Amino acid sequence: MLIRVHPLKGVAVLYFLMCILALVLRSITAWVETSTPVDPFASPPALTLVPVDGFLVRVPPGAVRLPDVPTDLPDLIRQSVSRVSAERLDKDKCVPENDTQIGWQKCLGDYLLAAVDEQGKIELVEVYGGKPSRAGFTVACEREGGCDRGVNPPFTISSPPGWTVVALRTAVLQEDGPDGIGGAVYVPFSSRLDDPDLRMQGLEYLRDAVLAAYYELRAKDVVSRHIPGRYVTDFGTPDHVIALILTEQMYSDTWFASGSDLERLEMFNRALVTLGLNRWKSYQYTKSGAGARGIGQIVGGPYQAIREQYPRADLPADSIVGRTDHHTSVKAMICHADAEWWTFAGDDERAHRAFLLQNDEARRLVLAAGYNANVATVHRVIHACKERWREDDCAATCITDPETCVKLPEQTRLYLLKYEWIYRVLFDEAFRAGVEKSVWATLADRARAQQSAYEKRHPKP
After folding, report:
1. CB 436 within 8 A of CB 48
2. How would residue 345 be classed by pLDDT, with cut points 50, 70 and 90?
3. How far is CA 146 from CA 115, 293, 372, in A?
């Protein structure tokens, strides 16, 4: 007997079977997804952008937040800073570095640390003569020689695990303090604090500090001394000043120049995280052997010259205050960018001046070189070596006698390498993506190892 199926009923049956198949496949897929571990480090975190007066600054790539660093870290840091601010070093416990140190001078290089565990518990740890006094705690330094002196040593607690140093109190040189010493409270950097949020906070703080100075000078119509019809803010632009500040805060020119992208990022992110943690106090105690101070590492003589040349900028008469206060230091840096035009202001410089005015990248590099070296030296090298002015063998192309050719100082060539790399990571999307691609595999492996170690200490029931 032949059974005939109505065509519409056949379609309904086929549709029903397809729905059953789809449900089965969905169930299988869900089971596979739940039974297969998801790698959270398979790809880098989403790119974060910080707007800066018409520019977009890209938060640099770097490490992810460690699983045992508390999420409420900013509040814990505030509490820790308050606790160490209320304490004092014990002069009787201090270990002098040499026999000439007397009184409070003996406490240079000794520390009172505040550390937090992953649950947010705060403990104070004394470190005298490099040795912690609290039983059960082992304090180490992430960088050789980095914890001998200063307010930003990369202290870590190697045991017990899961502790992060978030504040310190130490002794610093202070002319009007007892025995020439004062107390300093700071949030020291360590790799445990390097995460995307703190890098972003550092960039946002730097953005706000630069724009505050930039807008004030713009509002006061501080005009260029050398380019008619222009203002100092036309040359000390926010992108240039941000890159310049970060260039000044890399702790080694030679290490940066010879380092990999990952090693450069570690220096770069150290500066950003320091800014995010300490904000207006960042680099307040930084002083070079040449007497350069503060966030912009400005020397006293050039600062006073800028102050006299640009009275409308209202820079403080006190050179130390002017260079360590972020607002006035950034104003001085912006004015300095204009002051560098003096060597290019003559009639015989008309063509070169026009080129620099029209070419942002070339102008920024010349201004950065002049910030590091004397701009007159940079001017002579450019005239002698033309397009090869940044190279170390430009004597071969001198338009004058090669025997008397002026070369750019090696320090300045390294400085420009730093400046250019930092600028491109911040403002060049393709360049930043290339750097991230070159470092992410290593960063991801580190993150997986850290996550695995954390899970071993905290096994699931």
Report:
1. no
2. confident
3. 18, 19, 24
Angle at 364 between CA 358 and CA 367, to 5 degrees: 115
For 277-297, letters b (16+ CB in 10 Å) and e give: bbbebbbbbbbeeeebbbbbb
What pLDDT does residue 389 have? 87
Which residue from 443, 313, 420 is spatially nearest to 372, judged by alpha carbons?
Answer: 420
For residue 264 the two structure tokens come to: 């450069």
4 CB-side CA count, 13 A? 2
- Residue 59 to residue 205: CA distance in whole angstroms: 12
Strand 49-52 and strand 111-116: pairing? unpaired
pLDDT class of 461 with cuts at 50, 70, 90: confident
Query: Whole-model pTM?
Result: 0.89
| Calpha distance 254→415 (Å, rounded) | 9
Question: Please, what's the b/e burial string for 192-224 (b: 16 or more CB within 10 A of its CB; e: otherwise)?
Answer: bbbbbebbbbbbbbbbebbbebbebbbebebbb
Decide if 241 contacts 330 (C-beta within 8 A). yes
d(CA 333, CA 248): 12
Give the tens place of pLDDT for each residue, 417-445: 999 999 999 999 999 999 999 999 999 99
Task: Give the list of residues 6+ apart from residue 17 with CB closer than 8 angstroms, or none.
Answer: none
Report the C-alpha gap between 351 and 356 in whole angstroms.
9
Predicted confidence (pLDDT) per residue in 275-333, tens digit: 999 999 999 988 888 889 999 999 999 999 999 999 999 999 999 999 999 999 999 99
Please name the residue that has the structure tokens 């140190």: 101
Q: Which helix (H) or strand (E) holds 246?
A: helix 238-248
Task: In the chain, list all ranges with CATH 1.10.530.
Answer: 196-373+409-429
Residue identified by tokens 């397809």 is 18
**Burial of 229 per CB tally in 10 Å (0-12, 13-18, 19+):** exposed
SS3 220: coil
**What whole-number distance in Å separates Cα of residue 39 and Cα of residue 93?**
49
Identify the architecture of domain 196-373+409-429 in CATH: Orthogonal Bundle (1.10)
Torsion, Cα 269 192 442 34, to 10 degrees, reads -120
**Cα–Cα nearest to 214, from 200, 235, 229, 228:** 235
Tokens at 129, concatenated = 């003569």
Spatial distance between the Cα atoms of 205 and 272, rounded to a whole number of angstroms: 9
